[in-house]
Design goal:
Alpha-Beta Plaits, 5 helices, about 30% strand, alpha+beta
Length: about 260
């Protein structure tokens, strides 16, 4: 995720950065690798995270606060774009390729990091490994998606899925009569089994579209589409704007940020 200085010119092999750091820090090679992977080492003023990076005589700085403690697990909040897979494995049409799958995690890049991220966390390569997607979202939908390295957040979002409310804005064609709203809010079931409780209201109306707000506990991919189909509504777009107490707020489409330590689902 971070830029790095150019490698030595051809014919000048240099030495591994880990070896140089071990000499400067008077530590073992493995400890030197940990310092480098933790983002504590700069070469010519730029952070380098690869222990195998080759250096010549560039200046090397080791942060005076460098620590060998493992990086704190991070959680990523992403405003997913339509057409990216978020845990459902649905193939979608990719221009020039045909049917395929584009993981939503591909959207998490240095360029798409929200400028308004107030976490103070410097993105490192290790922050983007072993990330677990916690709450699936349809490929055709947009909105809030959560990736985490923190087992506590993964367990919370998995074990409490039936009681965590999710909120969606859904645009449908035409008007939505009061009796259709009433059917959505009461009385729909599947194979004589009740569906998860749902609260539906009209957010806005236009000439050809109505925007609905869905708030559902125990939602799963496909449920909103099923409900709309049962009452004859044609979905134009769908966006998840909240998971539990966590709103998507100001994240622009395709952008991401780190979860703040005080934020809770």
């Amino acid at each position: 995720m971070t830029a790095k200085p150019p490698a030595p010119p051809a014919g000048q092999e240099g030495v591994r950065l880990a070896k140089r750091v071990a000499e400067l820090k008077a530590c073992s090679r493995r400890e030197a690798e940990q310092y480098i992977e933790g983002g504590w080492v700069r070469v010519a003023g730029q952070v380098v995270e690869e222990p195998q990076f080759r250096v010549l005589d560039q200046p090397i700085e080791i942060d005076p606060h460098a620590s060998l403690m493992a990086l704190t697990p991070v959680t990523i909040l992403l405003h997913k774009l339509p057409g990216f897979d978020a845990g459902t494995g649905e193939p979608i049409d990719i221009k020039g390729v045909g049917k395929g799958i584009r993981p939503a995690l591909n959207l998490v890049t240095a360029a798409s990091h929200a400028q308004g991220d107030r976490s103070g966390i410097t993105p490192l390569k290790k922050h983007f490994t072993k990330q677990v997607l916690c709450v699936p979202l349809e490929s055709g939908a947009s909105g809030l998606v959560v990736f985490t390295q923190d087992w506590r957040i993964e367990r919370k979002l998995t074990e409490d899925a039936a009681v965590i409310e999710q909120e969606f804005t859904v645009e449908v064609r035409g008007e939505v009569p009061p009796e259709v709203l009433d059917r959505l809010n009461h009385g729909l079931n599947a194979d004589n089994r009740p569906l998860p409780p749902v609260k539906v209201s009209v957010s806005s109306t236009g000439d050809a579209l109505t925007r609905l707000r869905f708030a559902i506990k125990g939602v799963h991919p496909g449920l909103v589409a099923y409900l709309c189909d049962r009452v004859g509504l044609q979905i134009v777009s769908m966006k998840r704007i909240r998971i539990g107490r966590m709103p998507m707020t100001t994240l622009a489409p395709g952008q991401w940020r780190f979860l703040m330590p005080y934020e809770r689902f």
